[in-house]
Amino acid sequence: MNIAPQAAGLRDARPAAAGTAGARDVRAHLGFVRGGGRTVLARQHVPYPFHITRPFWLDPHLPECATLYLQSSSGGMYTGDRLALEIEAGAGAQAHVTSQAATVVHRTPGNEARLSTAIRLRDDAFLALTNDPFILFPDAHLHVATDVTLVPGARAILADGFATHDPEQRGRPFGRLRTELRVRNADGQVMVWDRGTITGAQFAGPASPLGPYRAMGNMVGLGARRGDVHAPALMRRLDALGCRIGLSNLPGECGILARCLAPTGGLLAQGMAELYAAFFEAWTGHAPPPLRK
């Protein structure tokens, strides 16, 4: 899927006034359990602006794995939004939760938008949470925080990213992006705490830490994997797309972190798809099924 904003026909939604008027403080919950030979969505609380499809079972190699598309009914995130999502995968449950498309973050003057995700994985559970990149509009301030509780035997793959777009093509930067990932063990001890902050001015400036690249994605594989991520071959495939990746082992041998830089949001989507295929195969033992978006 090409997430280039120009192709999507996006517009700059400007609130009538800055501040918290109309801001949303919403918490959603998804609970997966295994029963009857497959994973089912046993509990759900999905208030506006969250929306979900029914689960699908798409993987012939993992017929018990449920795939669920997470959607937004509001056209993006707005100033002062506080959106929280809790996902729990019960013992032996296997699920893939993915966004339907990229999420636009509109202007948030004076009050950043925040998306908090809490993931709880029980014994032998597997969860993939793959969000398409956020598209940061001018003066967009976004904080994305993810908290994972991982017990022995559980596995997870997490993906997100961001690209930028100025609908008026005046080169206006986004405000600020903050990201945070914490991984805890069953006792609540923090095993991984990855944090980053960048302003739009730093991102677009001559000394940008991203260099000439204008989109970035992160992918994390957690728990015991069943194969190797073949880094040289993966790097060659992403090089052919014009992307650059780096792979790092996480502390305590609890997983692998990958970062991907891309020239555009569309190429980032392709690069992240390659990364996900490599991680999925390493963690499950076979290639992922194709998804329609």
Structural overview:
The protein is 13% helix and 42% strand. The protein has 4 helices and 17 strands. The longest helix is centred in the last third of the chain and has 20 residues, at 265-284. The protein has helices spanning 5-8, 200-204, 231-240, 265-284, and strands spanning 25-35, 38-45, 50-52, 66-72, 82-89, 94-99, 103-105, 113-121, 126-130, 134-136, 141-150, 155-164, 176-184, 190-199, 215-222, 244-249, 255-262. It has a domain at 28-223. The chain has 293 residues and is mainly β. It starts with a helix and ends in a 9-residue tail after the last helix. Strands 3, 4, 6, 7, 9, 10, 12, 15, 16 and 17 form a 10-stranded mixed beta sheet that branches.
The largest sheet, given as strand count, sense and whether it forms a barrel, is:
10 strands, mixed
Please report the total strand number as a whole number: 17
Mean pLDDT across the residues is: 90
Strand/helix succession: HEEEEEEEEEEEEEEHEHEEH
Q: Percent helix among the residues?
A: 10-25%
Number of helices: 4
Radius of gyration (Å): 18 Å
Instruction: Tell me the fraction of residues in β-strands, as a range.
Output: 35-45%
Helix/strand-derived category reads mainly beta
Uncertain regions spanning at least 5 consecutive residues: 1-19
How far is the first residue's CA from the last residue's CA? 7 Å
From the spread of the alpha carbons, the general shape counts as globular
